[in-house]
Amino acid sequence: MNTLRPLLSLAAGVALVAAFTANAAELSPAAAAQHAQASYREYFDLLALPNDAIVPADVRKNVEFLEASFKKRGFTTQQLPNDGKPMLFAELPGADPQRKTILFYMHLDGQPVIPAQWAQKSPWVPVLKRRTAQGGWEEIDAAPLFSGPVDPEWRVFGRSSADDKAPIMMFLAAIDALKANGAALGVNVKVVLDSEEEKGSPSIGKVMAAHRDLLRADAIVIHDGPMHATNRPTLVFGNRGAAKAMLTVYGAKVPLHSGHYGNYSPNPAQRLATLLASMKDEQGRVTVRGYYDQVKLGDAERKIMAAVPDDEAALQRRLGIAKPDRVGANYQEAMQYPSLNVRGMASAAVGDKVANIVPDTAVAELDLRTTPDSDAKYLGKLIEAHIQAQGYHLVPGAPTDEDRSRYEKLATFSYQSEGGNAAGTPIDSAVGQWAYQAMVAAFGTQPEPVRIRMMGGTVPTAQIVEALRVPFAIVPLVNADNNQHASNENMRMGNYVDGIRTIYSLITRPF
Fold first, then answer.
1. Domain coordinates in residue numbering, the chain
2. Nearest to 35 by CA among 141, 162, 175
């Protein structure tokens, strides 16, 4: 599963699509918009339910709401026990043994919120906004969303409006369209909704293994992550994994008066900064020996990545940076390598809580984005060796008096997987061809759907695949600038309508 091979030739792909779609009836944009509008009230009601995975009662409310939504559309459902935060399984009855079965994965939980950071009454009170002439966002009456003409550029703001409640509602709206049209399924349809994806899906493998027969499928489609920035139909064949690492550098036993001991007792904050700086060069490339050695990119892989229509100048303007790190030749290539990111640092205090001290400790928390060929253990051992090469003696916790008397530089370093391992599937796999054909059937080839070798974010693909042993494809449906995980998360209405068309095409296409 972890081998990524070059894609089919364009000519072969187009020939397959032509043969496959000759008699297919697609959902028109107008029909998709109609079914989208019919689902918006339910979508708002779902967004009004807090869904942080650390609150089991809130998770259960979301599960119960969505179980009722699936049942209303004729699905059989089953809550999968998970320590008070059940996952939800749903299946359309009448499975045909002559059809292949697709398991659609989405998640119903969301990231925590800090309400004060949101430009609205509450992250749990969804609102409709439009862009102003100055480029900002202004709230508008949501009534037209439910009964009038809808501007595709309007956006719904609220936690999980994009990640990942929108794809769930798009899926339900696509089922409504299927039933309204009397259309035939091309595949047997199963759905599983994760309840802890934003916490790294710690139980997804265990839950799936316990219900392997129930979840049995021929392939998995994962509706998570952002589409390409062009909003063209997007198909992704892999994702990086996530690991976290903690690095603590020790100074004196206790914080010291900076007047009496500055210039004498080494400052752990300064040493930590120097140690972290030794891990990257001025181009942003990791200098830890061997860090990139396992990534092998040939001409075929680089051709795939070069075909992705990234506007890097626009991306840099949106990010507000003058120049990107040079880990890869372009954005797509950068995503193929493992990363080393400092996501937080702490030592003593700043601002109105600052004191004139030499701190006793300094801590950095790192996140490492892993790749199929460079897992957390591999990267963690390399960083550990690098720290030791800088003259540090590593201790498992706070150093003893003996440690302090023997070693000039003391540190603690630990690492662990967080949020799943990396995974990849061949771009010319059967599930990849099927999903690509469905997209072309729905949207055409002018422009062609975007195919991405591996996205930078993490979804629990590896755990799911390991449990079920079937191929996968990631089909993101939400706008790239949705602010997922941050304040003012939003969902573009044009993407919502197109997502319904994508899902409709997937479920009506034989695999």
1. 10-239+422-508, 241-295+337-417
2. 175
